[in-house]
Amino acid sequence: MTVAIDLGAAEGGAPAVMDLEELLATRLLVQGNSGCGKSHLLRRLMERSAPWVQQVVIDPEGDFTSLADRFGHLVIDAAAQTEQGLVLAGDRSRRHRVSVVLNLEGLDPEGQMRHAAAFLNGLFDAPRDYWTPLLVVVDEAQLFAPSGAVEVAEEARRASLGAMTNLMCRGRKRGLAGVIATQRLAKLAKNVAAEASNFLMGRTFLDIDMARAADLLGMERRQAEMFRDLARGQFMALGPALSRRPVRVVVGQVETESRGAGPKLTPLPAAPLEDAAALILAAPPPSEMLRPVRRAPPPPPPDVLAQLAAARPAAPPPPAAPPSPEALAERARALAGMVRAVLAEEEAAFRPASVLYQDFLVRCRIAALPGPLADLAEFRRLLAVGRAEVPEEVAAREEWPQAEAMAATLPEELQGVFLKLAAAALAGAPCPGDEEIARAYGTRSVGRARRAVGFIEEAGLVVVREDGQGRRVVAVVGAGWETGIS
Known about the structure:
ATP binding, about 40% helix, alpha/beta, Arc Repressor Mutant, subunit A, globular, three-stranded antiparallel sheet, Rossmann fold, about 15% strand, single chain
């Protein structure tokens, strides 16, 4: 089924339409100076496509929150959410196919980068069963994918750029269709802009931006001057979802109101104020006046002995009594049981660790588990054991800590695979099949499972061979454990 989105009028009065299905496969880049009508164009596109496809808007200025009143979008105030909460919100919005406006207004640039990256990562990491078509609109994309250094922490810049790169470069197979708008192509990271196949280029004045816009549209350099002549709401369109040759498009009217519309001229007061100076320069009310603070004279300097006494470190508090072995064992059993409960949910074995950790913390608080909660590093270790489905009788054996110590030398995502193999070898059970290993790896791909086993063998922790009947046998190096024959 072909869905044609009416953007307005093209040259000659013909309707300017966009093929929605083609857009979902090829992505869109919108460029133009401030005030050229980019936000108006995005609003028109979202209004006309809202009945057909789920939408997410990354909104740095809160301009698109009015979509909620007309089309039922959920508005998320990013300033009131944690980054982990936004990861979970992104995952849940894909599962339930809810259109969302992520309002980043009120956050500083670094906070906008971090929160947008967290939400985009939640969308990107959703399980395969929920890879339905999703239109992801990013306004002012140069804020989230800058081409050079910016005055924010390097960690925040990398996280935001990585999320935008995933959206534009790897998002298609996951159903994510990126629509990015920017004021200047020169400020937008090239690897993000290069993945778009559809272009709508508005008014721009700088030579470098005009030249890049002309190159993207396949126009000659001498034609680049025409971008200065475009009126507000006019764009040059090109791409498989728009037109096979550059065509001028005039964007039509929208149904919802933008909070970011430019201010209108307002007449000045008809009669000037009689005493403007007295009104503007009036003294503040008594409650707001700054009262002078009388400073006490500085105390005399202490003598040398007093200075030495003051510099002497305070006695450290007595150390807290270490928890008993019984308490440590009880805590370990409780945490392991909680991880098993998290993994018992459908599809939990294939979700990212960061999403499962939020569920784990909520369950721990509800159950009022004694002692400190596990941090993310400890949770990942428990998750590896849980995904490996190690039997309790095997984990209780005195040789098992050796297996955990060997697993700690591997990357986190491979630890569960090694523990799965080590548990079978320690118990003398048959070697797990490819599907069991894939589940311990957190994937459905048996090919990735085989590569994981090969990586562990290359690391020198196991030796894999086949018996006379072609069945896989795994031996743990240095421990003398080997899987049996079924």
